[in-house]
Write a structure and sequence with these properties.
GO biological process, one term: iron-sulfur cluster assembly
Shape: globular
Number of helices: 1
Mean pLDDT: 93
GO cellular component, one term: cytosolic [4Fe-4S] assembly targeting complex
Helix content: under 10%
Largest sheet: 4 strands, antiparallel
InterPro entries: CIAO1/Cia1 (IPR028608), WD40/YVTN_repeat-like_dom_sf (IPR015943), WD40_PAC1 (IPR020472), WD40_repeat_CS (IPR019775), WD40_repeat_dom_sf (IPR036322), WD40_rpt (IPR001680)
Keywords: Repeat, WD repeat
Low-confidence stretches: none
CATH architecture of the largest domain: 7 Propeller
Pfam family, one: WD40
Radius of gyration: 19 Å
CATH topology of the largest domain: Methylamine Dehydrogenase, Chain H
Order of helices and strands: HEEEEEEEEEEEEEEEEEEEE
Length: about 280
């Protein structure tokens, strides 16, 4: 145990400062930090801005530097940010009820689209594994699915209305076009499209009746193989869910229900707002 604890020790290497209000979300650019490409991440804040940070590998200590400040687009808190799988597009969701799409060209970032439709605060944004779909969710209880079209055009292909309260987070499965959403209504919902009709439907709801959470579900994360999911909640617990068939599924038609595996409790004494599975 001592050896394990030593290996797991985290040490601060640098503090990134610049935002003037709370930082709500961070996202690593998935195409950086490999093959000699300096690592890059985005941060978004209550100061209405998004900052792009990049590691300067030309200096011995490899310090992080702010390369860009994306402002003058959102008019309220920027709550969520997510890079597309290609690393070329960054989606940012804001309390101003819009989602902005930024394109990374050279050293510049340009807002190429503003997605409107939600009635109020956008709480989370998420790209599917191919980058062809973007999901957004809001305090208006809805989840919107947008299709990415040529020329940085986006079309809403479905509005999902199953939740009865504020939707806190949306997250696509690591390699299937199956979408998960969690909410103030204490549930996690699983959504997939119908190839025949192009409609999206709720395939499963995880709630107290199947060993789910008893209060707001704030976040979820998948393991790298996509057969396990962890959720966190205002009820002070983490719950791990499993699906033996997840690695074999390709779409909602072959859906196999998720089942509760275990509950981790007694470790936190206040709300658990975020959880992330290591890769």
């Amino acid at each position: 145990m001592d050896l394990l604890e030593k290996k797991m020790e985290l040490k601060e290497i640098q503090k990134l400062e610049g935002h003037t209000d709370r930082v709500w979300s961070l996202a690593w650019n998935p195409t950086t930090g490999v093959a000699g490409i300096p690592a890059m991440l985005a941060s978004c804040s209550g100061d209405k801005t998004v900052r792009i940070w990049q590691q300067n590998t030309s200096l011995p200590s490899n310090p992080w530097e702010c390369k860009a400040v994306l402002d003058e687009t959102h008019t309220r808190t920027v709550r969520s940010c997510a890079w597309s799988p290609s690393g070329k597009l960054l989606a940012t969701g804001s309390f101003d009820a819009t989602t902005a799409i930024w394109e990374h060209v050279g050293d510049d970032f340009e807002c190429v689209a503003t997605l409107e439709g939600h009635e109020n605060e956008v709480k989370s944004v998420s790209w599917n594994s191919s980058g062809s779909l973007l999901a957004t969710c809001s305090r208006d209880k809805s989840v919107w699915i947008w299709e990415v079209l040529p020329g940085n055009e986006f079309e809403c292909v479905s509005v999902l209305q199953g939740h009865t309260q504020d939707v806190k987070m949306v997250q696509w499965h690591p390699f299937m076009d199956v979408l998960f959403s969690c909410s103030y209504d204490n549930t996690i919902k699983v959504w997939a499209g119908d190839d025949d009709s192009d409609d999206w439907e709720c395939l499963q709801t995880l709630n107290e009746s199947n060993n789910g959470h008893s209060s707001t579900v704030w976040a979820l994360s998948f393991n790298s193989t996509g057969d396990k999911m962890v959720t966190c909640s205002d009820d002070l617990t983490l719950k791990v869910w499993g699906n033996d068939s997840a690695t074999k599924q390709t779409n909602g038609d072959e859906f196999s229900p998720w089942r509760h595996l275990c509950t981790l409790s007694g470790f936190h004494d206040r709300t658990i707002f975020s959880v992330h599975w290591s890769r």
